[in-house]
# Entry
Amino acid sequence: MANIKLVYTESFVAEASLATKQYYGVKLTGNRQVNIFTANTDIPVGVLQNTPGSGEEAEVLVIGRTPVKLSDTLVAGEPIYFHSDGTAKKWTPGTDITKYCAGYITIGGSTGELAEAMIQCANPVKGAASA
# Structure
């Protein structure tokens, strides 16, 4: 059987320098512009895949598997949201009702490390009873 990999990336413009934010969650801030999160309740558009300066092209993974920077220790299978600094944290269904689930960890890691996640930011789930 063939191994099918669905990956969907989009190009945006970095509103500010994101040179140190590769693999952080980003949000839309204007017409085709992205920037790092400023609140836990921001709506994720995806995970930054490159290191653009202000006004440069920002490659964003919207759906697919990617590294993510952690702000919690997470294990495979745990759902995530993006913290106010764009790092991934554990999302608790039914509790984190104002935050958007951005996907699931597929290879875990510790705080400050890169882990691997399956991201789905085309239509993220907000505050649902289950992820």
The chain has a mean pLDDT of 92. The chain has two domains: 8-62, 66-125.
